[in-house]
Amino acid sequence: MIKLFGRITPTWDDAPFVARVTTDLERPIHDREQEVLLWHGDSACTATGFRAYLCTGYACAVGCGSFAGPVVHLPASLGYLADGDIVRISPRGGDLWVMYRCSSHHNFIFLTERCNSNCVMCSQPPRDVNDDHLVEQYLRAIPLMSPETPELAITGGEPTLLGDRLIQIIRACKECLPITSLHMLSNGRMFNYLSFSQELAGVAHPDLMVGIPLYSDIASLHDFVVQAEGAFDQTVRGVMNLRRCGVQVEVRVVLHRQTVHRLPHLARFIARNFPFVDHVAFMGLDMMGYVRMNLEALWIDPVEYQTQLRAAVEELHRHRMTVSIYNHQLCVLDRELWGFARKSISDWKNEYLPECDACAVRDQCGGFFSSSSLRRSESIRPILREETDSRRVGADVSSESSVVN
């Protein structure tokens, strides 16, 4: 598991700032004001003009007094920082947040903790706080990101609650990252307003998809899961409005004990009412947030719902819809479902167990959320080489997903 936050020393009296990491001592002077120099040298550093200087170990010990600006002693957990990464440093608070990693395919823009739903299995429970500063920080960070960034996720909370500020973020991504695909996670309820769907479509981002959860074909059951009366109707209209306006839509289904019994019915509902959506994803639980509080009511061993999951996937596939399975280990899936499995868990919270070391399909398996230590399937085991035709492994299991979880 990769840590994205860390405590730093020393601290100094200054406002929080966003900066790009560089190891290049020859950076143009006009760029240095928005960059921090990562110094690995074992001697004094004479480069000037950088917003701050990041160093570790011996470099700090020998050069601490020679830097031409504030010095940040990085903890070992953040030793992976490299050229092109973006950090937010809070000098007074003594903390550092890694906002973006240039080499990762799992970067995300976390815009707000607020939400108009309160899902029983939410891994990021909403908080009614004023976090408008997050938008400002990302508006500073986006122009610093590599224009070669393949994809970004936009998440929360519920990003659509930001209204025009969300549109501003997406427009900034279009202008600064023209080849970067965006995948926004939303409950879809605000797109119930056609005018908002039209406003989003009006940005004309070349590769934007909105991932919207639908938990049941029965309105009352969906509303129970999201803890919001009328949410089902709003979500359904939101999906239709977005596609009416030409925005790509993914329907997401989180699998848990309260809803898995109706998976085939939900798949039939989606196939009949949303045949135009671009993707359907069935997702395993990330046991954070409310899942921990409601564990006994939500947890079900994935092997117990394979019949329902297979029927749902087959229903959608039969209607020529694109369907995937996220956040599942191959050893708990029916072999017939392997072709729909994706490596979808973000690298910074993805883990494998010791027993996975002997597995013949480990490299194709999605692995585990770091939170899975709370509860795992009893059927986790290594799949031995003799159990599978090694020539078929690459064909049976799809590669890394283009979304972040």
- CATH class of the largest domain, please? Alpha Beta
Overall shape: it is globular
Low-confidence stretches: 390-402
- What is the averaged pLDDT score? 91
Helix content percent band: 10-25%
Task: Name the CATH superfamily assignment of the largest domain.
Answer: Aldolase class I
Q: Using DSSP, what is the number of strands? A: 16
Q: What is the multimeric organization of the chains shown? A: single chain
Strand order in the sheet with the most strands: 1-7-6-2-3-4-5
Gyration radius (Cα, Å) is 23 Å
CATH architecture of the largest domain, by name, is: Alpha-Beta Barrel
The CA-CA distance between the termini, in Å, is: 14 Å
Largest sheet report? 7 strands, mixed
Number of domains: 2
What portion of residues belong to β-strands? 15-25%
Number of helices: 12
Q: Which sequence of SSEs, written as H and E, runs from N to C? A: EEHEEHEEEEHEHEHEHHEHEHHHEEEH
Query: Could you name the CATH topology of the largest domain?
Result: TIM Barrel
Helix- and strand-based class?
A: alpha/beta
Task: Describe this structure as you would to a colleague.
- This protein is an alpha/beta fold.
- It folds into two domains: 5-100, Glucose Oxidase, domain 1, CATH 3.50.30; 108-337, Aldolase class I (TIM Barrel, Alpha-Beta Barrel).
- 25% of the residues lie in helices and 18% in strands.
- It contains twelve helices and 16 strands.
- It has helices at residues 29-32, 57-63, 133-141, 164-176, 194-202, 219-226, 231-244, 263-273, 290-293, 295-298, 306-318, 393-396, and strands at residues 5-7, 17-22, 35-39, 52-55, 71-73, 86-90, 95-100, 108-110, 151-155, 181-185, 208-213, 248-254, 279-283, 323-326, 350-351, 368-369.
- The strands form three sheets. Strands 1-7-6-2-3-4-5 form a seven-stranded mixed β-sheet.
- The chain starts with a strand and ends in a 9-residue tail after the last helix.
